[in-house]
Amino acid sequence: MGAIATIGLDLAKSVFQVHAVDTAGKVVARRAIRRSQLLDFFERTSPCLVGMEACASAHYWTREIGKFGHQVRIMPASYVKAYVKRNKTDAADAEAICEAVTRPTMRFVPVRSDVEQSINMMLKTRDLLTRQRTKSVNALRSHLAELGIVAGAGFKASAKLIEIVRDNTDHRLPPVARFALAEIADQIERLTEKIMKLEKVIVSSVREDDVSRRLTSIPGVGPITAAAVRALVPDPAGFRTGRDFAAWVGLTPRSNSSGGKQKLGSISKRGNPQLRSLFMVGAMAILRMSRYGATMQPWVASLLKRRPFKVVAVAMANKTARIIWALMNKGGCYEPTSAVSHA
Q1: What is the spatial distance between Cα 233 and Cα 215, in angstroms, rounded to a whole number?
Q2: Are 237 and 330 in contact (CB under 8 A)?
Q3: How far apart are the first and last CA of the chain?
Q4: Helices 35-44/58-66 angle, 10° precision
Q5: Which of 6, 109, 179, 250 has a CA between 20 and 30 Å from the CA of residue 291?
Q6: How far does Cα 206 stand from its chain's mean position?
Q7: Over the stretch 72-107, which tens digit does the pLDDT of each residue have?
Q8: Which of 182, 205, 183, 59 is nearest to 126 (CA)?
């Protein structure tokens, strides 16, 4: 085997595809390797540049392969696709990865540590349990509505429905319906208990981290959002400006410009949907408070008078993303400007 300069690794579950070239770009190796043999292959290979597409296991393999002295870089799959020639195969993907990783303008994904991945798993577990609880609450509401029993909107109002299900003296529910709905009520309470346990651990981790504590000083950023930012943005310095970070989250307008004419559309929704959703939820929560006379920043109060509610929420979420980038790169805490009342 000749001197390998660059390796393109197409990740898989069991069989991985390797495409290796030398300094002149000549193909040195093109082969499939089983999972059990992959680390042995890189241990026997002299340190070189290794590229792979971003996927669920990419961060793990980056850490393991990097232990052998290799320079490992992860790229978004959408950026590698342009280098695939003709039909898509594992060998063609590995060749495209090998070529893309050497491009000077290629953008790379920061590698996450196992701790950062663990925090992200905790956040995703909480999100999964929350969605399961929402489905259970909706099922309980719809079944009781069939019998003419309704309650107000919101999760807290569902507690009244659970009380009705548990009240054996309420004859509006037939015994069979009460037995079935009691199972849904039990599931809602079990899920709520599990969610609370996860939230306690998340809040505790945020309190122990200096950057996360400073992020919670920003309006609309709570412990969940701060923990998500820390887990999903391991290297904020990888973004040149706050606008680049906001664009990565997907909170900047989609551009379709040509011939000197600037055409900006709705937000691009690129980047990370988890962060974008959290930023939007925080922004809308603040704007809802303004309906009850809460003080708003002057630019927000002015924007509310001439633009729709959700457009202002997007602007606030964009602003929040830029502030987060600034605090993570430059340190310090959020210092609010003067606010005005908006009724």
Answers
A1: 13
A2: no
A3: 74
A4: 30
A5: 250
A6: 17
A7: 999 999 999 999 998 889 999 999 999 999 999 999
A8: 205
Q: What is the phi/psi pair of residue 6, to 5°?
A: -140, 140
Which among 303, 286, 301, 297 has a CA at the least distance from the CA of 339?
297
Return the sign of the alpha-carbon dihedral for residues 214, 219, 223, 224.
Answer: negative
Q: What is the pLDDT of residues 265-290, one digit of tens each?
A: 788 888 889 999 999 999 999 998 87
In 3-state terms, what secondary structure has residue 268?
A: coil
50 neighbors 30 (Cβ within 8 angstroms)? no
Q: Which of 31-45, 136-150, 162-176, 243-257 has the lowest mean pLDDT?
A: 243-257
How buried is residue 322: exposed, middle or buried, by Cβ count under 10 Å (0-12/13-18/19+)? middle
Give the tokens for residue 2.
């000749």
CB 75 within 8 A of CB 106: yes
User: Residue 164 in contact with residue 149, Cβ under 8 Å?
Assistant: yes
Task: Give the closest residue to 234 by CA, choosing from 147, 320, 115.
Answer: 115
* Phi, psi for 18 (deg, rounded to 5): -115, 135
Beta-strand pair 27-34/15-21: antiparallel
Q: Give residue 107's identity as a one-letter amino acid code.
A: R
**DSSP type of residue 257:** -
- Are the CB atoms for 29 and 4 separated by under 8 Å? yes
What pLDDT, in 10s, does the model give residues 182-219? 999 999 999 999 999 999 999 999 999 999 999 999 99
Q: Residue 326 burial by CB count (10 A; 0-12/13-18/19+): exposed, middle or buried?
A: middle
CA distance 42 to 127: 37
pLDDT of residue 343: 47
